[in-house]
Fold this sequence. Notes:
The structure is a single chain. The termini are far apart. The model has no long low-confidence stretch (mean pLDDT 94). The chain has one domain. The chain has helices at 7-29, 55-69, 73-80, 98-105, 119-135, 142-147, 159-169, 172-193, and strands at residues 34-41, 48-54, 108-109, 114-115, 149-154. The chain has eight helices and five strands. It is 57% helix and 13% strand. Helix 1 runs antiparallel to helix 4 (98-105), helix 3 (73-80) packs across helix 8 and helix 7 packs antiparallel against helix 8. By secondary structure, it is α+β, with helices and mostly antiparallel strands. A three-stranded mixed β-sheet has the order 2-1-5. Strands 3-4 form a two-stranded antiparallel ribbon.
Amino acid sequence: MQLNFDYAKLKKALISATAEAFAQTKAVAEAESFYVFGLYICREGTSITPTANTEAGLTRLAQEYAHKYGKPSNLYQQSLRWSPWDWTYHAQGQEFYAEVEDLLESTWSEADCRYLLEAQKVFQVCREALAQLDRQAVFDTGNVREALLLNLFKSDQTQAQLLQEARYLNSPKACDRFAVELHQGQTVFFQKAR
């Protein structure tokens, strides 16, 4: 059974929620420089969370981990750089997503014991919402925007999938930088494990 879900309504709600979440995150972070903002989406497309980090937030987290685990902080800066669930501003502004959550929750079918929506369509709507906000300069312009990587983050995502998503929303230069940082982070992660 397929639900006739209103993806256009979801997109409108996402645009509004994401603009508000980003504005709140900027206000909370004050003068910190963002290097990433995105949406973290579960594999089924039934949960969407705003996520962001700043260079200062990453530095604080790396120092905290270094103190706690006794390894150099630069290792944590590299390995945690692209780990959304560890970011300082992960889920900042989640309260603005109430309508989004209600729309997604409305697709639950007791009879089928599952959500009746197409995850790929939800991912596409999220991508389109970020792209529209980017065109409206919500994420700034010029060098500030170039330094900010916009992306969709999904559970169980490979590096290749992360890069593919990044290409939809960022310049080739930003994607090249992202590829290098992902590789460095993975290399350091496996070094830390030893």
